[in-house]
Amino acid sequence: MKIEAVARNALIARLKGRLHEGQRTICEEFVAEGDAIHLLQQRCRLIDEVLGQLWSELGLPASLALVAVGGYGRGELYPASDVDLLILLPEPPDSVLAAQLEQLVCLLWDIGLETGHSVRTLEQCLEEAAGDTTVQTAMIEARLLAGSASLFHGFCSLLKGSLDGQTFFQTKRMEQEDRHQRFSDSPCSLEANCKDGPGGLRDLQIILWIAQAAGYGKCWRDLEQRGFITGEEEKLLEECEAFLRRLRIHLHLHVGRREDRLLFEYQTALAEQLGFTATDARRSSEQLMQEYYRTAKTITQINSILLQNLGAALFPLPDEPPQAINERFQKTHEFLDVVHENVFVNTPEAILEAFLLRQQQLDLNEMSARTQRALWRARDLIDDDFRRDPANRARFLAIFKQGRGLVQEFRRLNQFGILGRYLPAFGRIVGQMQHDLFHVYTVDQHILQVLRNLRRFAMEEFAHEYPFCTRLLSDLGDPWILYIAALFHDIAKGRGGDHSELGAVDARQFCADHELAAEDTDLVVWLVRQHLVMSSVAQKQDISDPGVVARFAGIVGDERHLIALYLLTVADIRGTSPKVWNAWKGQLLEQLFTATRRFLLSREALPMPDGTIAQRQHEALRLMRYFALPQNAHERLWQQVDTVYFLRQSADEIAWHARTLHEHEHDAIDQPVVKARLNPFGEGLEVMVYTQDQTDLFLRIVGFFSRAGYSIVDAKIHTTRDGYALDTFILLDISDRDSDRAMIAYVEHELGDRLSHQAPVDIPAGGRVSRQVRHFPLQPQVSIQPLVSIEPDETGKLFVLTVVAADRPGLLFIIAKKLAEHGANLHTAKIATLGERVEDTFLISGAELEESTGRVRLETDLLKHLQV
Fold this sequence. Notes:
Elements: H1 5-33, H2 36-58, E1 65-68, H3 70-74, E2 83-89, H4 95-110, E3 115-121, H5 122-131, H6 133-140, E4 143-147, H7 149-162, H8 165-182, H9 201-214, H10 220-225, H11 231-255, H12 264-273, H13 284-314, E5 323-324, E6 329-332, E7 335-338, H14 343-346, H15 350-360, E8 366-367, H16 369-378, H17 384-388, H18 390-401, H19 406-415, H20 418-422, H21 424-428, H22 443-457, H23 467-476, H24 479-488, H25 499-513, H26 518-530, H27 533-540, H28 546-556, H29 559-574, H30 583-602, H31 609-624, H32 635-638, H33 643-648, H34 651-663, E9 673-678, E10 685-692, H35 697-707, E11 710-719, E12 724-733, H36 740-756, H37 771-775, E13 781-786, E14 799-806, H38 811-821, E15 825-834, E16 837-845, H39 852-866
Parallel strand pairs: 2-3, 7-8
Antiparallel strand pairs: 1-2, 1-4, 5-6, 6-7, 9-10, 10-12, 11-12, 11-15, 13-14, 14-16, 15-16
Helix pairs in contact: 1-2, 2-4, 5-6, 5-7, 8-9, 8-13, 9-13, 11-12, 11-13, 12-13, 13-16, 15-18, 15-19, 19-22, 22-24, 22-29, 23-29, 24-26, 25-26, 26-29, 27-30, 28-30, 29-30, 31-34, 35-38, 38-39
């Protein structure tokens, strides 16, 4: 039946009003009472009523069936969820019915329903379900809304008969593994997805889908009655599900559309709506997210147990007697199994033994579901007496020393809550967020990432990743000492005060309790206390300065400490965020390591600058000979530069500069020389600029590079005796072009042209700061301190400017502009970008800076303009 226009408009207005008013009332009731189940069910009932009226008004044939599928079929409709519908036909539609169905679909959208719909016959349903598990999953939860009950029951019967529980289980398990991999297999992303992320609602739904496909039941109570879960686990699952339901409903209501990511901009409002209150020590959002992480962790644990139990039921293994391992454990079908469920209650020391056995027994692929469940319940048995037991301490230490399974077992220890019980300090940082703009993991996940990185250095199959680190670790001796340092390096985060110092106290107590040798204890404690120093020196100081190397060597003291600190530093930086580590940081750390190792092995006092200069000049001349240049090709440049130049440039750069300028010696003397090359020590470009000094030169160069899509990560600025600027820059492409080689000619020509014509300064294009910066702002810090240099003439004239601020487009341009305005001359720049946070260091000079009032004016001006 086709509805006339007037009647159609009246129907749309009536149903649209009914939907709007009904949904408003339902949401208001939820906000007032917080009953998630009531909202989900009432929204389904409302949609049921509206669709029933619409179906009736259209007068569709009685032989058809309107079926709710997916979440709607399950009886759970979140505020912004799609309404998934299946229009079931007994046979393919003729033209009249096709027109009616088209009218129905149009009306669904006209009245304000976001629907996902399909129109199929029974045969088509079976064909689609056979080829697409997602379709099959949605149909499992079908519910009749209107039309032919007999057609619907026939559909249900055919679908049930077509289901293969084993195939469905395998497909869904692989689907979950793929989904988890998209989220780095961690529920602890700072902006977690509460639906699809590990430990989210989907991990609960997948269990019930498998149970339905296998005929084991439709709800948690059914699984409890069939023995798949215990009564305690059923209750815990219901609590976790209730929390996630409330959270997702509030998220949809707050955003006003379908959104399942707990983005930074939503977290504070959601926390307040869920009753979390900020304290002096912790934001309300941090409390909410810690509760979320703990909930997700519980879900992933029960999900693992349930999948294993369901798999055992669907794929029964042939009967074979278990093989005894000892009086507490046995091997059952390659699973580590407890001999009875009260093993850990009767002998708590077996808790750590279970993890140790998994490492030692090569033929144990997994823990049985019974063992996992018993371990999970046994975590509360770990008390002070357990921790003080020498045998337990020996077992815990032995886990570090095994040749396999370290990372997997520590992740499992954390997953079961055992690690946090054995080390209460670790328990306090489980699920703790880090709003420092460069860590993307919670503290516990970061620590386990660092442990993973260190472990990979020791494994032959990963030697190709960082061969230098692998070689160093093999020379170190006992890698397990490093693993302990990694476990403690951030364990004191969030307590207030210096987490390195507080963590060192914890580490010393642990080493004493576990009877480590004095030498090993000192190394662990020293590493925890100093774990930040190497990255700070490499990224913020001039590591070509022998004085910097000598002072750092004084901190590390010997080669063993240097190797251990280098390895921990690389693993730590790589474990913060995929964005933070790059080849440039790796190059800086390796250069600092190599120079310091050479200094330590020489056992000499601080080398005099003349000795260093002579070495670099000799090496530079050797490199130049490869290009068949005249013996005096270097003299023109070297006569114009001073000691500082040779101290701050590498031999390779000195040779490159001399060769390039020799090639241009017949060019017009007032024409700039711009030469670019691929960075010989890492990614990006290295650019040399040689030109008569001019006003705001650094500002001009920064503006050009920013416009060209490059970020400056290192800059060495030098002025020759005859007034020429000789500057070297290391650039990284921030525009994802992957075309450094193709950009060389552009940089050389365009920058040279701008400098020769003294073109107006390029103003970098504006841009928005990241969401993380907006919602977790970083208070800028600016410091100007006199440089303590090995060059007596420089002391008191050079100053170190340190800037810590949230990254944003044009940040370096702002700093360069302020330096120019205050008459500050730039000598070197270290640009350290850590995720959304920058920690930049500049060596500057200038008449205004020699007075404290001038330094205060520059600091104040910078702080004012660095505010986000």
